[in-house]
Amino acid sequence: MSNTRPVAPAPRIDLRSESAAAIVVFAALALLPLMMGGYVIYVLPQYLIYGVLAMSLGMLWGYAGILSFGQAAFFALGAYAMGLAMKAGFGASDGYLGLLAAIVIGAGLAFLVGYFLFSAGVRDIYFVLITLALSIMVQQIAISQSSLTGGFNGMYIPRMDLALGPFGSVSLAHDRAIYYLVLPVTIAIYAGLRRLTRSDFGKVLVGIRENEGRTLSLGFETSWYKTIAFTISGAVACLAGALYGAHAEFVSPSLASVAFSTEVVIWVAIGGRQSLLGALLGGLGVAALSNYLDGLSPVFWQLILGGIFVAVIIAFKGGIAGALGRLVARKDGTHG
Amino acid sequence: MAEFLGITKLTKHFRGLVANEDVDFTLGSGEVRCIIGPNGAGKTTFISMISGHVAPTSGRIAFKGRDITGMSVPGRARLGIGRKFQTPSVFDNLTVAENIELASIGKHAEGADRRARMGEVLQLTRLEAFASNPALTLSHGQRQWLEIGMLLANRAELLLLDEPTAGMSAEETHATAALIKTLAAEFGIAIVIIEHDINFIRDLGAPVTVLHLGRVLMEGDFAAISENEDVRNVYLGGEWEC
Fold first, then answer.
1. E strands within A236-295?
2. A11, A199, A269, B192: which could join A326 in a potential S-S bond, CB 3.0 to 4.6 Å?
3. Distance CA B151, CA B110 (A)
4. Average pLDDT across chain B, whole number
């Protein structure tokens, strides 16, 4: 037929190899507290929570092609929701109330913002700027409403108890206990988002990313798909924030800063935005690396991190997960 | 009885410029129609108003007995109006199969029904051997077919094809004419085609509407059109040889 010939498929991340990698990663994380203790087990849940935050952006940016600089706004709102719920004094269910409130607030705010922006045709850089403004707004509100939020001084949040009904309740004050709450939540969110991205809904999101005009002309109300994607992303980011508040036992306005929102974008760009596992490990790994570099050189660590960021972006456009996917594809290619 | 596609007094002015003026047009289910006319005759504007990409200044468009004049692009697509753009608009970074699958979402449930439809579409558009290749590796002609295939997977009942044979070899052009005949005769799909390729139009043997300065100059079968003195003057500059 004419002048074309079949060529090898474009390198892409093999879905089966990602599943296998995810099982290995999660199994290792599940076994880690049995072998280690101390600081690693204290700090790992925080990095896992950052990983969840990174996945909330990975789904949105990697699949729907919508970049948000407002993930920190949702994250901070979640942490404040947890703090206020714990202060409310409803007894044993305070923590659950905080988690539930975070999901509802995150989804509600993202739905409203998404609905008005996407149905008005706001996109690309304009959407980025408005989400950036959202971070600033949340930060300013957190500072100004000091009677509620503690203003600049922030707010202390007691760790929630895990009430198990007739089985009593488990205090999450112990690091291992909260580790074994955060890890399954992380796995569940990973599994849920992965299922979403592989569903028909996720395929339409990819269509929007690749060619929104074509997707619209095939009968899909793209502004609704984008609104729903942003709503889910906001809910996940806000839930991650509530967990962060419970774990860190503290929240301050800097959590909603543009700088932190930018960090989330960097995690996802380094990890690989078209792979949820890449985003998760990007959040976990880069946050851990930042912490390590900070200890090594308090002055220059951001410069070193910036250098790594630039190097990864120049060398592998799809982040580290994208590069690994290409490597696997090339290996497979030599067999065929 | 309400016709399949009924257009009355459709008019589009871009500021002072007249793109279409009082165009009346009807098409039955399973009918094929070619639209020809010199550059600037308003051909693409006309089908853009049918697909919803351009809002008419005045006039009415009815499809399957419904007034769709004010309906959105995706709304019309869900009703069964499929548009192939002049420059093929496909998902370049997705494979041929993924392109077709995306188009079938919402119309064919995941599983056996969708797989069967995808197989059928790949076969009709002669893209079976390329199913796992990214769309951007296809030739221009194959991209045209892929876009038509997506519209079939999307269950379009009215295809609007803007220059479907651009970039095709003679053999591919002939195959496209055969495909269009099959879609109309066997699947009952109505097809409106904007074309410049006279051999293709003759090959197709479908009635032709000639647009000139935004108005319908003439309608009729190919032989009548090609013999008409007015058409020869405006469109072919009198230099056309049959």
1. 250-251
2. A11
3. 17
4. 92
